[in-house]
Design a protein that fits this description.
The chain is α/β, with parallel strands linked by helices. The protein has eleven helices and 13 strands. Strand 9 and strand 10 form a beta hairpin. It is elongated, with a radius of gyration of 22 Å.
């Protein structure tokens, strides 16, 4: 009897439960047992697990978040934790791990794979910045949420003749800002990949005003920064176990700078964790389900050390080391499309 251990790590996002459901039900089809590991890698270190059955995953497909809980635990910060993790894999008779997460969770999975632990990765991030896959689940939902917010802010911006700055998630990659900005008709989109010139941004917004358009929408990713600034704006100097600081504040910075340059009333809306919450879109439910099924198929074939990925419309397997080698940044051809509408 094969026993699969499944965990979710890093930030939560819509679609995680769809993957868990698919792993459990596909595994049952082949006679596999599934053990849910609570709170990511922390649960495997602490031995906090629960059996997952068909009943466990009934009704979770449309539910946001993760029924297993999550954490940003890095077992490789302490060699003793790595040993506890390995001991618990043996203790619970886990024959293969399914690790669902982004760059950090998959980075741990890749290290474990090099140590001979059978592991399969499933890419998860609303930022869509995991390499080797065209899209990750959660991203479509986040873009839909941000687009709706931009649509709503348009009406109040136009009514009050304001500039509305919308700060969205995107530490290293501005996929959400770019896609939602285009979909929502933003008048300026600022992303981490392209340091921006404050005077140039103000110039675009001034040009709109002179054409009689007395309102503007600026969408900015949290990791975006003006030219000449060292590092992104942060909320504090504290870091998580993977060394990441908590970003936030670029929206407020922009508000102050634009008001100073343009003399126009400017307001900022920080969408924050709203982007992660709620029910996944149909697209994300389907993609997450396909990923979960494919992960079990890899286990069945004993094809470990791989991550399932979307290439075109096909689900394929790619080496974990390829998936975590670098981050996937915004396609500049797509970003240039947005720039056509600046100042208009």
């Amino acid at each position: 009897m094969t026993t699969i251990g499944v965990l979710t790590g890093g930030g939560d996002c819509p679609g995680l439960n769809a993957v868990i459901r698919a792993v459990v039900r596909t595994g049952a089809k082949y006679g596999f047992d599934t053990i849910g590991i609570r709170d990511g890698w922390h649960g495997l270190i602490a031995g906090d697990v629960e059996p997952l059955t068909d009943y466990s995953v009934t009704g979770i497909l449309p539910k946001g978040g993760t029924i297993l809980g999550t954490s940003r635990t890095n077992p490789f910060k302490d060699e003793a934790d790595v040993q506890r993790l390995r001991d618990n894999i043996k203790r619970f008779g886990i024959d293969a791990l399914v690790a669902i997460g982004g760059e950090d969770t998959l980075g741990v999975a890749n290290k474990l794979s090099t140590m001979g632990i059978p592991v399969v990765g499933v890419p998860k991030t609303i930022d869509n910045d995991v390499a080797a896959t065209d899209y990750t689940f959660g991203f479509d939902t986040a873009v839909s949420i941000v687009t709706e917010a931009i649509d709503r802010l348009h009406t109040t911006a136009e009514s009050h003749h304001r500039i509305m700055v919308v700060e969205v998630m995107g530490r290293h990659a501005g996929w959400i800002a770019t896609m939602a900005g285009i979909a929502g008709g933003a008048d300026q989109i600022l992303i981490p990949e392209v340091p921006f010139d404050l005077d140039e941004v103000a110039g675009h917004l001034q040009a709109r005003y002179e054409k009689g358009k007395k309102f503007s929408i600026v969408v900015v990713a949290e990791g975006a920064q003006p030219k000449g600034m060292e590092g992104a704006i942060t909320q504090s100097a504290r870091t998580d176990e993977f060394g990441h600081v908590t970003l936030g504040g670029i929206g407020t910075f922009l508000r102050d700078e634009l008001e100073k340059r343009l003399g126009m009333e400017t307001r900022v809306t920080v969408l924050g964790h709203v982007q992660r919450g709620g029910s996944p879109t149909a697209h994300d439910r389907v993609l997450a389900t396909r990923f979960g099924v494919a992960a079990v198929e890899l286990i069945r074939e004993k094809d470990f050390g791989k991550m399932v990925a979307l290439r075109g419309n096909d689900i394929v397997a790619v080496p974990l080391e390829e998936a975590v080698a670098n981050l996937k940044t915004v396609d500049m051809d797509l970003y240039k499309i947005a720039s056509i509408f600046y100042g208009g």
